[in-house]
Write a structure and sequence with these properties.
Length: 141
């Protein structure tokens, strides 16, 4: 079984600026998907969102989520991470993850800017504690 500790999975998740697609359940039971910037934080996926957003409210109700990340060019690949979220409003952690995501997606020269912009009261840091990983790292093979 694949895991988040698999070096090939970690390399895929860390490479470039692929956007994650977070699946969660709305209050009326509808499945929803939203794009997120994410980083690997140890053996967990981490991202930020507002406490008052649909994602933030949904995860407070039901911590089960799925995140998919894909490569839309040959060799076409994807990783699906299923798990349960842990959420925190700790500003030091919110800012740390926001800064790391800023570095990944906007570059090191703008990391602090994005950390300060997104590391504020009302924002959350979310960690996905993995329960299952499904990966296909070369659909052309």
């Amino acid at each position: 079984m694949t895991s988040i500790a698999d070096p090939a999975v970690r390399a895929f998740l860390n490479e470039g600026t692929k956007t994650g697609h977070l699946g969660y359940v709305a209050s009326d039971g509808r499945p929803l998907v939203a794009p997120v910037w994410f980083v690997l934080d140890g053996d967990r996926i981490a991202f930020n969102t507002g406490a008052g957003t649909a994602k933030g409210k949904a995860m407070a109700r039901d911590p089960r989520v799925v995140l998919t990340v894909d490569l839309q060019e040959p060799p076409y690949a994807f990783v699906q991470v299923q798990g349960v979220v842990e959420v925190s409003e700790d500003l030091d952690e919110v800012r740390r993850v926001a800064t790391a995501a800023g570095a990944r997606y906007m570059g090191d020269d703008r990391a602090v800017e994005f950390g300060e912009r997104n590391g504020v009261v009302g924002e959350l840091v979310v960690w996905i504690n993995t329960t299952k990983v499904i990966a296909s790292l070369d659909a052309t093979a």
